[in-house]
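Example A, followed by Example B.
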Amino acid sequence: MGNFAAMKFIISLLIVITGCRAPASAPEQKVMITADTSSDKINGISITASRKVLQEDLLDTICAVSANYICLLPFAFVPDNSARVIFNSGFQDWGESPQGVADCIRMAHQYKLKVMVKPQLWIHQGKFTGELMFKNESEWNAFEQDYTNYIFSFLNVAQEMQAEIFCVGTELESFVKHRPQYWTWLIDTARKSFDGKLTYAENWDCYNQFPLWEKLDYIGVSSYFPLSITLTASVEELKRAWVQYVSELRRLADQKKKLVLFTEYGYRSIDACTSQPWDAYSESPPNNLAQENAYTALYETFWDKSWFSGGFSWKWFDANTHHDVPVETDYTPQGKPALKVLEQWYSR
């Protein structure tokens, strides 16, 4: 028996006799993937509010596709025929609470991800927020008081945690139109209370009618422009359809001297996904190629424009997300060919 073999035999014998155990190997250290902060574009992803504490694995997947921003979505609820805004309630998800949002911002910053906080209203039975109206001054005043409490609860969190962007409202056309003095006050007060950038997210069909872009840092647009009714529209067909919208967006950007930000953009992986991109619930056969082409056309149309600041892909799920429609026909690009397109453009 050679010297080395003899030594191994003696060590093994000692372990058997004394009951010793060989020392356990050191636990493998996780290598944190962090966001690339070098891009001037907002390469963003909207994440659904998690039911439980957000798992860091989700941020790993976001950094892995070269995103540099996330958007947090603390929803509030407006009951039917009510002037109430209900938020931070016991029935809501962890990610919709001020504490949950604060923790998510802290976690994102550890990954060098920047953050936009974007409070949104959900009206009973999914009624469109742009049509929100009240009967009299008393109801409007009650609603505005609740909305103010809601917005500033999360704006204060965004300020304390040093979030980079805050969105003061989402798709509220009638509210803005009928209560302009309130919105002037809201934005002016938010400006005094928040050190980051401010925006507002208006719907694709009326963003050019919002009267207060001069007071904000970005022209925020929910980018669900209808492009084609073709079941699987080609990239070239979609790029041709974008031409008219590009002209309108650039004209407003030049006029207001502000960058355009797609506060939401995305397509379901279904047939004719570019026909009514805002339709989240209709039943339709899965079609990954239609979604992939739509993503490609959007990036090729906008991402190199100097007046365009970027946007937030809608939307990203974690393991605790409740799904209203099957994942294979939902908006998320996760696990679909569109994700590769997103990664290619975000990594440029």
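Example B, a separate protein, is given below in the same form.
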Amino acid sequence: MPTTSEVAVAADIEELTAKRSFWQSLVRTARKQPVGAVGAVLVLLMVIAAVFAPVLSSYDPTANNFADMHQPPSWEHLLGTDQFGRDIFARILYGARTALFVGFAASFIGGGVGLVLGVSSAYFGGRFDLIFQRVMDVFMAFPLIIMALAVVSIASSIEMLKEIPSSVPVIIAIIVPFIPRCARVVRSSALSVREMPYVDAARANGFSHSRIVLRHMVPNVMAPFLIMLTAFVGQAILLEASLSYLGLGVQEPTPAWGLMLRGGAEEYALSAPWIAIFPGLAITLAVFGFNLFGDAVRDALDPKLRSQ
């Protein structure tokens, strides 16, 4: 019978082997999907910047300091200062929080609603599916930015929404155009799932429609849903920046990358170009990272590519 020390040593060896296999599989995946690894690193850096913003910069991103206006990048201000003397590096770090909050909230809510609606449309079929798809066609006829502009304009005019944070109408404006796009993709996969024997068996056993949709069909369309979800985050970040740049998104004093571009970046493009360069670079890298990561997720979940 093994002693207590032998059991402890065996447990340590097993834990060390598990850790080693995890890192080996991670390195193997990075070698197999180098583009996805680059995207994952960019996403991870964005998350680190958002979480550890107070540690990475001691400056208040909302505090004006007119004595330090238009300071070029230096050791004191790594990315320079804007027209109000605010540290650009600090505002980019805290702006990552706004971008991630809006991006993940809009993507998960819009994608989740689109997932349920798309599966329900495929499950019920018939007249319900026909009417639902025509409604989705109406929404998809408008480009993302146009639909988001219309929704945020309506949301901003509602008296009840004027008392809440400015990011909430932006999230609502991004959710609305995301729902039909997710529902259309999910429905195409759910149509084949509907014909599976286990769905017929669930109907024969008298299960409710909601249980069949949520317990039997939704889990089997998660692959295209996850691909759409990762793509939606990058699109949501870009939409939030576009709305903020146009003055219909996040409002001062909340740090936001699109708001930084709007705040006099054109006026100081020649005298202080860093005011526009670094927020624009942050938006580009964030969207680029999520798109690369989404492509890697698609390749990993695609059975044809996975078998090669």
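On Example B: The CA atoms of residues 81 and 87 lie 5 Å apart.
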